[in-house]
Every structure is written in structure tokens, then in C-alpha cells.
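Q: Can someone sanity-check these two? First one:
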Amino acid sequence: MKQERDMLVIQCPPTTSVSPATRNLMAQQQQLPTPSPFSLSAVSTTWSSRPSIHFSSLFLRFLALVFSFVSATSMGAPPLKKKSQQPSSFTQFSELMYCFIVSILAFIYSAFQLFKGVCDIAHRGIFISDMISDYMSFILDQLIGYLLISSSSVAILAVRQIEQSSSLWKAAIISDIMSFSTFLVIATSAILSGYRLCKRVIW
């Protein structure tokens, strides 16, 4: 007679050895603090305040574009022909010619800045990086502003030499006023560009 013995075999899973590096990593993950709602609100406030600066700069660029366009067209438009001994073209005055060229340069620069501002809002950092854009705007704003204030000052000397009854005198007055208005807008843009540059470099 055969006796069958049932053997109960218990299979224990092998103990996995955990390395000290893994234990330290798990401990660090457990000790990570939960993000505070105040930090999230601060980040959201920063991102919400940045578009306002961009839109303000964009509005100033648009004003500079309009003012420089009016300054250039008022000087470049052919004046009405009148019987006068005074020259009817601004090209015979070097001061007015200088003011006309500077107005065209300010118009081209304002159009470029307006296009760049739209690209920065739509596709941030794709057209020109933010750091290069801040440095370039700060330097070129001061350069264009210097040219505008110098051309406006020089144009006053030419206005005094033109007869007040002529149409060229009226065109020179309008061009000089618009050129000075463009200078005020560019100067404000330069202050805003300097603020953004200082905020990036120092703060």
C-alpha cells in the first residue's frame, strides 16, 4: 500500500534590494513642497501685466507712424503756385530738405517697430529675441529722437526766411509741428524701452 504525501510548497517572492540613491530620491520627492497659490497668482499677474506694456508701446509706434507720415507728406506735397519771388520748392532749402529726410527715416523706423510689435504679440520671440529687441529699440529710439529734435530746430531757421503768405510756409509749419510731435512720441517710447531694458538687466 502506497502512502502519498502531499507536500505544501510556499513560494516567497524574492526580496528586491533598494539602492541608497533610490531611497534618497524617493525621500526628496516626498519632501517637495506643494505650490503655493500666492506664487501662482504672482506669475499670472506678471504675464497679465506684460501685454499692457506691449500694447502701450504698439500705440506709441502707431502715433509716431502717423505723425511722421503727415510731416513728410505736408513737406513733399507740391505747394500751390502763386506769383511770388520766394522759391516754391522745399528742396531749395537745405534745412527743410534735412527735415524731410528725417521724417522719412522716422516713418520707416516706426513702421518697422510697429510690425515687430505685432509679431512679438502674435509670435513671441520668433521674429527677434526679447533681449536683442530691447537693446535695439533703446539705442535706435535715442538716435531717431536726436535726428527729429535737430531737424525740427533747424527747420525753424528756414521758416523765418519764407514769406508767410506762401503755401510753402504753411507746409513747413505743419511739417515742423508734426516732426516735433513725432519726437515727443519717440522720446516716450525711448523711456519705455529703457524701463524694459533696466527691468531685464538689473531686476
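And here is the second, same format, sequence then C-alpha cells:
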Amino acid sequence: MLCKFRKIEVEPYSEDSILALTEQVFKISGYRFQDHELLKTAVTHPSIAAERYASYERLEFLGDAVLGLVVSEMLYTLFPDDSEGLLTKKRIALVRGSKVVEIAQSLNLGNILLMSKGELTSGGISNNSNLENALEALIGAIYVDGGLDSARHFILQHWKPLATNLADTPLQDAKTALQEWAQGHNFAIPTYRLINKSGLEHAPVFTVEVTVNGQRVHATGCKKKYAEIAAAKLMLEKVTKQNEP
């Protein structure tokens, strides 16, 4: 069920607005913040941040790691027979940007963000990047304020139903998953380049290189398509390990 709230109309950092914000966040997350300064930071978009106010960017960094940890732990428990590779695919499917945005939209999270008038009039409260960043920041703030158990409770509440549906949903191929991962991190889409073709005419071997955000890996396959998929899989494994907490 969608949580519907009006955009806070009072002065962003007044006492009244913070009390209203605390109640709205409690209704959204089920968690009541003790540290109001931390809560302000968690919902402050960079467009309105000034020298005396921090934006949510650092909390977003932390929340991304906490989300990855809790989802990994959840999948490890829910799917005891899955291989490491399959668990990795499921984690990517659950923490990719589009999935985080979907949950943020269901919470109407954009309505509690504090942002400049320019950002607001340009559609900032519904911008996918803002929603993804804000939800990760909220997770990071819950972790700092209430510890891992509080963050875990919030994450499981929203991600566990999605995880239980994975068994009935075909996982995306590696190329699609890698593209969504790149877009979710605001990187350019992956590029693939054939760097070698060897072997016999009736049994060729293709070597393809994939590049994402300046990182490159290559893989081989009996068809160019299969080499691209293999390269995408290797890149996913590489970037996933780099982003593990």
C-alpha cells in the first residue's frame, strides 16, 4: 500500500518541520529517529545543502553497503542450496537501481526530501536517481542511529517479499544485469568490442572485451554473443566484489 504524504510546506529546518518529518519517516519506515540532525542530513538533497548543512551523499554511500550486506545475508539464509554464482545474480537483481527506485516510489519517499526550488520544479521528487540515493541514505541513517538490527528490520520488510519471488522469476542474462547495474550507478552503458577471432573456420573462438566505467575484462565463446555474455558475467562478479562491504 502506498504511503501518501504532502510535501512539507514549513521552513525546512524549523523545529516544527523536523517534528513533522520525524513522524512522516516513522510512518514510512517504522523507525523513529533519536538523532534529528542525522535525520535532516538523510533527507537533504545536494541542491539545498550549504556549508552548515550536509547532504545525504555520505549516508547514501554507507546505506548502499548496508543494503548489500543485509540482502546477501538474507539470500544466504533463504536459499541454502544455491551456489555462490546464483546468489550473486539474485543479489544483483534485488539491489539494482531500478528495484531500489521501485521501493522508494512505493513509500512516496520523494515527498519528504528537502531540495531547492529549482530541483523541485524540475521534477526532483520523482527523479529516479534522487529516489535511489535517498532510500540508500535513509538505510544508512537508520544504521547509524539504531544499529544493524534496525536497518535489517527495515530492509527485510521491503526486500524479503521480492526475494521469495525470485524462485518463480527467470533471472536476467548477464548483459542485461550489467547494463542495469551501470545505469543504477549513473555510469555509461557497457560497451563490447571484438578483440580477437581465432580457431578453425568451423569452430571459431571469439574474444570480446567489455568496458564499464573505465574497467575492462574479456572472455571467449564459440559465438560472439556467448563471448559477450561471458564477459558481462565476469564484469558483474568483479564490480560486485569491489562493492562488497
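A (reply): Looked at the second one. The CA atoms of residues 33 and 145 lie 7 Å apart. The chain is about 55% helix and 10% strand.
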